[in-house]
Design brief:
The structure holds three protein chains of three kinds. By secondary structure, chain A is of the alpha/beta class. Chain A contains 13 helices and 22 strands. Chain A folds into three domains: 72 residues, Alpha-Beta Plaits (2-Layer Sandwich); 192 residues, 3-Layer(aba) Sandwich (Rossmann fold), CATH 3.40.50; 119 residues, TPP-binding domain (Rossmann fold), CATH 3.40.50. The chains are: A alpha/beta, B mainly alpha, C alpha/beta. Bound molecules: flavin-adenine dinucleotide (2 copies) and iron/sulfur cluster (4 copies).
Chain lengths: 434, 656, 270
């Protein structure tokens, strides 16, 4: 048995570092083997010192570094003495897991497409996938599922894929969860990739969540940063808490490591036309009669733009009293069209009869959360601010530097909107036409 | 023969009259209990001043007219009593009195009758050519006026005929009748004098008794109820609403007459339909569905319509069987009407018989919010924001102290700081009103006042949610604030917002918290008066008009301090707006209207801003952050205007 | 038939702030609220209860204090509120969360047929939008995400038709019942509780199911059943407000700068 001489490694006790806990959902409590962690009403831990056996599990589980071990001075001495002793042993279970993990190889990107036209995010993924594949020293495969999508393979190669895996069948002509889920799971089961990336779009998130659940692996949502650590694991960085914090998520004990990636964040890779790669055509068919979901109709913004509710719009160009007259709103329409958005306004603009009531943004109007909100000639009274301050990016164009709108603006231009807006429109049109 | 006939008629009329009155007034008892008999002496005094003295009545045009009719009525009550008694017992009359007394009485009666005739004719003409409100030209109104005139004519008819017949002698104590008698002598009717007397007498008798019996069924019921109503009025200002007890199984607010209080119901019988409330109501004036007169009328209609089928219900909790007061048609008020009340109190201030409209509006709103969760959609956000973040806009509570981040302000600490400066949500979050708050701190600092703020810990006082009828939420907010004030040892508070002022001062009292609450205008006036604050004075701000905030003015009677402060600063008296002080016109933000879109009619704030701009002021002075928003907002609609809107605190800060 | 609303109690993240000095979350005094999207999920279950007479059940997995959210659901009118709470459920990622919630729904299925499970589009804390699909897959329900309108429910034919709101387009989709639907805010306007309902809900029972009821393998729930783990949390670099150029004198240059910023930030979908 144990040598009588051997000094027992002091284990210390866990304690809370004040101010760091983010109330992540009691990871620490869940990790503790001896029920040594109690949670407060505010969701923060309380270590029951008499119960704590110093296993360090809670410390490891905490994402916020809100727990640490502490030792008495004597314990610290012993620790120092032990510092240069041997490595920890691995148990059988852990070894099996590592073997399993090692059996997965390759980086996949899922090419999202609609009627044979790929979504831009697919190529952004290909770009970042390329880098990951390089770091790992593996192939980058583009997974293309749809109907008549053969041509996308070449495009994938031109953006950096080594390989394209195609499933081309009638049932995949339109995206529906069930057939795509089945097909993806079939491919993953067959080829065992270590990383699977999809766009964090409506469709990508719909599919990824389903796939990860079926293959019982981890999925990181809406990543804005991806990297590989020294143990070949994917480090996935993403915003959470409404963008108030960033978290790095790991999925080191399971494979594949799945992530959805936020569109417009990863740079578009350079296109190298004529690049080639390996094409794998998989035949995976599902009979239409076994699918119970049907897409009856697709309505695009263009066909129903006037019906688009400002509350749900992604780009909004708003005008206020600074617009001076109803006719001037044509200018905003034009800008909104270029951005693919809609026109809204302050109550003053609505009261003046320049806009219909349902376009009013603010306290007694609509609450909007677009990606970009452009406020033209709006002073930013609190009644207006409360309706739009949660927008991702706020752009203010106003000639009064003291206008409160600038307090919430991401970008502001102090100037005459009648000069700035046309300049903006021209520049955007140039870009679009280029 | 005549006596017996008359005695029979008289007894029958009196019996029906008493029965009618009983039937109507008994309905009042279906209302919930309310104690209104405290301070009886004060109440009597109020009756003397306001009922007998007609103080309120006389405040409006044609008020004197009513006064004349009223007092004459009082005098003629004696005459009529004599008439009725002597009708049965002809020998029992005033001639039994010593002649000088009899003479005086007779003269009084003659003059009163003449005055009444004149006043009634004037009222008649007014109703034709310039009625208080359009719908005032009712048949009933003209009918009643004619009856009164007829009564007077008959009175003279009887007496003139008597004199002409020589049954009485012409005298100075009956000038009109004597004159008439003489005239009568020169007409062909001279031979018919007994007939004239008899006809006049009967006309008088029939008119008098029918008038009496018509009373309970007309707006003239007020002749009977107005005086008691004044006696039972709310002593003090109606600037708060009673608490509700939140226990399971109870109902909240009121949607039927039996959920209103008996006083609410009595109010409905006391309404004279004079229309003063509606004429001063900002909602009615700008084309909203709300009409305070109609509100009271609807309650009466509803009570008459189904009150008799209701059990008297002091505290009944079972579902009421009465028809809802809220809806469309007879005996109802529309939801839109209820939501358009700004709680300005103008209706109550102008009502000659002290009817209390606002508590009824709030009770009905309470029903909508608390029992049915039915309210304009904008309010959903407001209520959630108030509940979750304790401010109307749903701003993060941590942003509450942002306005002071550049200032070096003390946190409130009992013992170290004397006053708590209660900033209020507008003062803390609204860009324009933040400037006022900063100006106010400058003024306080200049005067060396010891004050502190609660910073991020300050919470919304809950004023709007209470007026909007969300008493449940108000209760939570009030408790939080009251507990915080208690635990921090707050005793003296300066507020910048009249709404906070009123709530801290008058609403929280119901929670057992008596604070010394001072609005900044009063406080600054005190500082200047004590010499603690030196203002440069005499600065020419041009013409300055002052807009009374309803919650500072009408609801709390702080009229002079802001005016005095302006006078100190400018050296000149403020230029009064046409509607000022008690008659001030709301900016449109009270009663929770600050959080609602104004869909109907024209905007209240625009109408008030126009009234102010018509005076061609250089500065419009306000004393309330809501008024500030409403004026700033409204003034933008007028192009080419250079008038500035300023809070009193800003005006003072500029002149330190 | 039962309709289920999955609701999560979350910290009101719009009130979360980063301490500029310590760079940590300032959470003091931040209240917990029902995830805003879930209030719409809840509203929809209540509407179906009102219109179709379905039984409305609210489910939440969380710590004991999540009972507050479920009580609010009772005040709004659900027939039953069930809290899934157990030490072993703590620290869950989306995979183990959907495991626990599906197990609970399965348990409900023993009592009555399930028609629809409503989830929010995503939460405002975890922000993943993954729990809904997880539930659908585990239960084999039709998966309809991002629904902004329910067009039709045919209980006879057991189908549902909805409108999904996707980037730049809408899709009208028909699917078989039972279904799992994730909802966006435009779907409906949540109701406000009446006071009698609030008072009654204060006393009503919130059922509590622990793993004793659900009998899941402890290695498939909570932290242990979570493939992902959060290794680090840090503050993002916040874009501070920036005034571009001199718009007064050179508006064109300022406009160009703005477009550059937008292109750099890849904010334009052109
Ligand atoms: C109960 C209530 C509810 C309300 N609800 C809402 C609401 O839901 N939504 C809402 O928006 N408002 C609401 N308001 C109104 C709000 O208070 C403000 O009055 C309104 O938002 C102001 O609109 P604005 O910014 O367009 O006009 P202004 O405040 O007049 O601002 C115009 C701005 O345009 C600028 N400008 C003028 N000319 C030019 C030019 N040539 N180039 C560049 N800039 C120029 C000026 O510098 C100024 O800052 C509400 C008010 C109340 C009282
Ligand atoms: C900073 C941070 C980052 C994270 N990143 C990831 C990650 O990338 N991948 C991952 O798998 N996990 C992640 N998690 C864990 C994740 O937050 C939890 O698993 C959580 O229990 C569910 O995920 P969600 O909040 O994102 O819910 P979502 O999937 O966004 O929720 C969608 C809907 O599901 C329902 N729902 C979700 N949770 C519950 C519940 N507990 N009770 C009832 N209904 C519920 C609601 O209707 C909700 O609207 C992260 C956690 C933190 C703190
Ligand atoms: S160190 Fe281990 S035993 Fe102690 S509290 Fe943390 S998890 Fe529990
Ligand atoms: S694991 Fe860390 S962040 Fe999560 S509750 Fe425990 S101490 Fe807080
Ligand atoms: S309180 Fe003001 S707004 Fe309300 S009814 Fe009376 S006068 Fe009209
Ligand atoms: S409520 Fe008062 S003010 Fe209004 S009509 Fe009746 S008596 Fe006149």
């Amino acid at each position: 048995m144990t040598e009588p001489k051997k000094i027992k490694k002091p284990r210390g006790k866990a304690r809370v570092v004040t101010g760091k806990c983010v109330a992540c959902g009691a990871r620490c409590q869940s990790a503790c083997p001896v029920d040594g962690v109690e949670m407060s009403e505010a969701g923060e831990p309380l270590i029951l010192v008499e119960k704590c056996i110093g296993c360090v599990k809670c410390v490891k589980a905490c994402p916020a570094g809100a727990l640490e071990m502490f030792y008495t001075p004597e314990e610290l001495e012993i620790l120092a003495a032990l510092a240069n002793k041997g490595e920890e042993e691995l148990d059988e279970e852990e070894l099996a897991r590592r073997r399993l993990v090692d059996s997965y190889r390759g980086v996949w990107v899922f090419i999202e497409q609609n009627s044979g036209e790929a979504a831009r995010v697919s190529w952004e993924l290909t770009g970042v996938g390329r880098e990951l594949a390089n770091s790992l020293g593996v192939e980058l495969t583009a997974i293309i599922i749809g109907e008549k999508i053969g041509h996308l393979a070449d495009e994938a190669f031109s953006y950096g894929a080594d390989c394209a895996c195609l499933i081309d069948d009638r049932v995949f002509s339109q995206y529906r969860t069930e057939p795509f889920l089945d097909a993806m799971c079939y491919l993953i089961g067959k080829y065992k990739p270590e990383v699977v990336l999809m766009g964090a779009t409506g469709m990508g998130r719909d599919l990824a969540g389903a796939v990860a659940t079926r293959v019982k692996t981890g999925l990181t949502a809406d990543c804005t940063g991806l990297g590989i650590d020294e143990k070949r694991n994917l480090m996935q960085t993403r915003p959470a808490f409404g963008g108030n914090i960033m978290a790095t998520i790991m999925c080191d004990r399971f494979r594949p490591q799945m992530a959805t990636v936020r569109p417009h964040v990863m740079p578009m890779p350079e296109r190298r036309p004529g690049a080639t790669g390996k094409v794998v055509t998989e035949s995976y068919t599902i009979s239409e009669s076994s699918i119970f979901t049907r897409v009856l109709e697709v309505i695009t913004d263009k066909s129903g733009k006037d019906k688009v509710d400002v509350a749900g719009a992604e780009f909004i160009v708003s005008g206020g009293r600074g617009m001076m007259a109803k006719e001037n709103f044509g200018m905003l329409e034009e800008l909104a069209d270029l951005l693919g958005g809609v026109v809204g306004g302050s109550r003053s603009a609505v009261d003046a009869g320049w806009l219909p009531q349902d376009r009013q943004v603010g306290q007694t109007g609509k609450t909007v959360r677009p990606k970009i909100y452009i406020a033209c000639g709006i002073s930013g009274a609190i009644q207006h601010l409360v309706g739009m301050q949660d927008s991702d990016v706020i752009i203010a164009i106003n000639r009064d530097r003291e206008a409160p709108i600038f307090e919430v603006a991401t970008y502001g231009i102090v100037g005459d909107l009648f000069e700035v807006v046309p300049a903006l429109t021209n520049r955007l049109r140039e870009l679009k036409e280029a | 023969m005549q006596q017996t006939l008359f005695a029979g008629i008289l007894v029958a009329s009196l019996a029906t009259f008493v029965f009618s009155c009983y039937r109507r007034l008994a309905l009042v008892s279906v209302g919930a209990g309310e104690y209104r008999f405290d301070h009886p002496m004060t109440r009597l005094k109020e009756v003397l001043v306001y009922a007998l003295g007609q103080k309120r009545v006389m405040k409006r045009p044609f008020g004197i007219n009513h006064g004349v009719i009223f007092w004459a009525f009082l005098v003629l009550t004696l005459a009529n009593a004599e008439f009725l008694i002597s009708g049965v017992f002809p020998n029992l009359n005033f001639t039994l009195l010593p002649p000088p007394l009899h003479g005086t009485l007779s003269l009084l009666f003659e003059l009163s009758s003449l005055a009444t005739m004149a006043a009634v004719s004037l009222a008649f003409l007014r109703r034709i050519f310039n009625p208080p409100y359009e719908e005032a030209r009712t048949f009933e109104a003209f009918f009643i006026l004619s009856m009164i005139a007829g009564l007077m004519a008959a009175y003279f008819g009887v007496h003139a005929a008597e004199i002409a017949m020589g049954e009485a002698s012409p005298s100075f104590s009956a000038p009109v009748s004597s004159l008439l008698a003489t005239l009568l002598g020169h007409t062909p009717l001279a031979g018919q004098l007994p007939v004239i007397k008899a006809v006049s007498w009967w006309v008088h008798a029939v008119l008098l008794l029918s008038f009496m019996n018509f009373l309970p069924y007309s707006k003239h019921m007020h002749i009977l109820t107005a005086i008691p109503n004044v006696f039972l009025r709310s002593l003090g200002k109606v600037n708060s609403q009673p608490r509700e007890e939140f226990a399971e199984g109870r109902t909240f607010g009121a949607s039927t007459v039996d959920r209103l209080s008996w006083k609410d119901l009595l109010d409905s019988f006391s309404c004279t339909e004079c229309g003063r409330c509606q004429n001063s109501c900002p909602a009615a004036a700008t084309g909203k569905q709300l009409n305070p007169r109609m509100l009271i009328h609807a309650i009466k209609e509803s009570l008459l319509g189904n009150g008799s089928s209701l059990p008297s219900s002091a505290d009944a909790v079972a579902a009421s069987s009465a028809a809802s007061l809220i809806g469309k048609g007879e005996g109802t008020v529309s939801e839109a009407a209820l939501w358009s009340c700004t709680s300005c109190g103008s209706c109550m201030e102008s009502c000659p018989v002290f009817i209390e409209h606002l508590p009824k509006v709030v009770k009905l709103r309470r029903h909508l919010v608390e029992m049915e969760a039915r309210f304009p959609e904008e309010l959903l956000n407001l209520f959630e924001n108030m509940e979750q973040r304790s401010n109307p806009w749903g701003m993060a509570p941590s942003e509450r102290s942002k306005w002071s981040s550049q200032l070096d302000l003390e946190p409130f600490e009992a013992g170290k700081t004397e006053y708590l400066l209660f900033v209020g949500c507008s003062g803390a979050f609204d860009a324009r009103n933040k400037q006022v708050t900063v100006a106010l701190t400058k003024v306080l600092d200049a005067a060396g006042v010891s004050y502190g703020i609660l910073g991020k810990d300050e919470k919304c006082c809950g004023e709007s949610v209470r007026r909007l009828g969300n008493e449940y939420l108000f209760e939570t907010m009030a408790n939080e604030n009251v507990n915080q004030f208690r635990s921090r040892g707050v005793t003296k508070v300066i507020t910048q917002c009249p709404h906070c002022f009123n709530t801290l001062k008058n609403d929280y009292r119901q929670y057992g918290l008596e604070l010394e609450v001072i609005h900044h205008t009063e406080f600054i006036k005190g500082l200047i008066g004590r010499g603690s604050l030196k203002v440069k004075g005499g600065e020419d701000l041009g013409r300055v008009v002052f807009h009374d905030s309803c919650y500072l003015g009408r609801h709390n009677e702080v009229y002079e301090p802001p005016r005095e402060v302006i006078r100190e600063v400018t050296g000149a008296a403020v230029h009064e707006l046409p509607r000022n002080k008690e008659n001030g016109f709301c900016c449109g933000a009270g009663g929770g209207r600050m959080w609602l879109e104004e869909h109907e009619g024209t905007a209240i704030n625009r109408s008030r801003v126009k009234e102010a701009l018509d005076q061609k002021p250089a500065t419009i002075c306000v004393s309330c952050p809501f008024c500030m928003t409403m004026f700033e907002d409204g003034i933008k609609e007028f192009t080419g205007v250079t008038t500035q809107v300023k809070d009193i605190a800003e005006v003072v800060a500029q002149n330190l | 038939m039962i309709v289920v609303a999955c609701i999560k109690q979350v910290p009101d993240t719009t009130q979360v702030q980063i301490d500029p000095v310590t760079n940590t979350l300032v959470r003091e005094g931040i209240p917990f609220i029902i995830n805003p999207y879930d209030t719409h999920a809840l509203e929809e279950t209540l509407r179906l209860k009102d219109s179709h007479g379905f039984k409305a059940v609210a489910l939440s997995m969380g710590p004991p204090n999540a009972e507050a959210a479920l009580r609010k659901a009772l005040a709004l009118g659900v027939d039953r509120s069930i809290l899934l709470s157990d030490r072993v459920f703590g620290g869950a990622d989306t995979l183990s969360t959907s495991n626990v919630i599906s197990a609970a729904i399965r348990r409900l299925m023993d009592e009555d047929e399930i028609g629809i499970v409503f989830c929010g589009k995503q939460t405002i804390d975890g922000d993943t939008a993954q729990v809904g699909p997880g539930i659908a897959v585990r239960l084999g329900f039709s998966q309809l995400t991002l629904v902004d309108r329910i067009e039709r429910i045919d209980t006879g034919a057991r189908t549902i038709t909805v409108r999904r709101k996707l980037e730049g387009r809408y899709e009208i989709v028909e699917a078989r019942l039972p279904a799992m639907i994730t909802v966006v805010r435009e779907l409906n306007r949540p109701r406000y509780p009446t006071v009698p309902m609030r008072l009654a809900s204060a006393k009503a029972e919130v059922e509590r199911w622990s793993n004793e009821e659900l009998k899941l393998d402890v290695n498939s729930v909570g932290l242990k059943g979570s493939p992902t783990w959060v290794s680090r949390i840090f503050s993002p670099q916040r874009a501070q407000g920036e005034i571009l150029g001199d718009g007064m004198n050179d508006p064109v240059a300022a406009a160009l700068m703005l477009v550059d910023r937008l292109v750099e930030g890849d904010l334009l979908a052109v």
